[in-house]
Amino acid sequence: MVDLVGQYQAIKKQVDESIAQILNSAAFINGPEVHAFQKELEDYLQVKHVIPCANGTDALQIAMMGLGLQPGDEVITADFTFAATVEVIALLRLTPVLVDVEPDTFNIDPIAIEKAITSKTKAIVPVHLFGQCANMDVIMEIAQKHGLFVIEDNAQAIGANYTFKNGKKKKAGSIGHVASTSFFPSKNLGCYGDGGAIYTDNDELAHTIRGIVNHGMYTRYHHDVVGVNSRLDTIQAAVLRAKLPHLDSYCNQRREAARKYVNAFQGQDFIILPKTGIDCSGICENCDCHVFHQFTIRIMNGKRDELAAHLAEKNIPFGIYYPIPLHKQKAYIDKRYKESDFPVTNELVKEVISLPMHTELEDDQISFITDTVIQFLKN
To answer: Considering the domain 4-245 in this protein, what is its CATH number?
Structure first.
């Protein structure tokens, strides 16, 4: 699904030299590379504060801790996403409220958000799924109307731009009150292990979060808040520093691969192609709203699983993100939920399949993949 070896070859010299310097200095935790990466990511995202941490799941949990959410507070998020999003809500003894998603963008449905709000609701977590932002115009309006926090789960969309109704653009993750991201190796900006970050423009919140990530300390051995141990190590920061200047190029290469996929699949029966919020399918030449962390299509003839088996026989990688909705996961089953609450999600889990998407995809690989899919669906 990703070619991390090929990507490494292009930045090998810088990565190897940086890691060698770290090994020689033994500055493995909070070394100079961490602080330099923090500043460079702040500049890239145009946010005031980036707080690196150990992984994307920690980032989301720490963001909620920083906002002071209390046990029993309700947090609304999408049913169709990876479990980490709801996992941290449950770990903090908050109450997850799962809602349905849009059928074309796969992102959280603002209409469903509004319907789910109660007197206990304190926050909304829009997940920018597969590489594009949720409808942040409407979500921010809802949050302002009801006095709610917005925590962007930006694990899959770093580098994407969101265009507001007034034409203004902002980077994914720089719109809500706080955002989290993951630097898991397969992400568009990935390190060579685990890593993550929280970002915000709120000075007070940033100060709180900086303490939380380091055992609640601002001064050594003075624990002012309840914290965790979640720091981005220096080697991972060095890898991310090498990759960050290439992030826009990486995203453009993914968009180009997506255009080739779409052109090959255009007009094919039984395939619904990915859409973007501004209805350009992510394939217009100037598109910057989708960074295609995944290229996910819907198979509409009931043969998604058969197609997956066929791709496996042909040694073509694929992913099914996600095969089980969160409201049906054993850990998160709740009597509050009705199947009628999730008509879109319940269909998507039977239809979606993600094809290889990375910066090293070559034309002949894309042709082989698309030809294989098309021939199977024609039979």
So the answer is: 3.40.640.10
Task: For residue 328, give the DSSP letter.
Answer: G
Cα–Cα distance between 103 and 211 in angstroms, integer? 40
Give the CA distances from residue 59 to residues 23, 144, 232, 338, in Å, rounded to whole numbers and listed in that order.
26, 23, 11, 30
Q: Which residue, among 100, 32, 74, has the nearest Cα to 325 in the 3D structure?
A: 100
Strands 74-78 and 121-125: parallel
Q: What is the CATH number of domain 247-378?
A: 3.90.1150.10
Instruction: Give the Cα separation of 105 and 290 in Å (integer).
Output: 10
The residue type of 81 is: T
| Full DSSP string of 90-133 | HHTT-EEEEE-B-TTT-SB-HHHHHHH--TTEEEEE-B-GGGB-
Cα separation, 353 vs 309, whole angstroms: 12
Domain ranges for the chain, please list them.
4-245, 247-378
Q: For residues 17, 22, 25 and 31, what is the CA-based torsion angle, rounded to 10 degrees?
A: 130
**pTM value surpassing 0.90:** yes
Q: How confident is the model at residue 97 (pLDDT cuts 50, 70, 90)?
A: very high
Q: Is the pLDDT of residue 328 over 60?
A: yes
Range list of β-strands (E), the chain? 49-53, 74-78, 95-99, 121-125, 149-153, 161-163, 169-171, 178-182, 196-200, 217-219, 222-223, 271-272, 295-299, 352-355
Contact 90, 332 (CB under 8 A): yes
Query: Which residues have C-beta within 8 Å of that of residue 204, sequence separation ≥ 6?
Result: none
Q: Which residues pair with 181 in a beta bridge?
A: 197
- State residue 281's pLDDT score: 47
Burial profile 48-69: b = 16 or more Cβ within 10 angstroms, e = fewer: ebbbbbbbbbbbbbbbbbbbeb
Distance, CA of 129 to chain centre: 6
pLDDT over 70 at 277, yes or no: no
Q: How far apart are CA 248 and CA 160, in angstroms?
A: 9
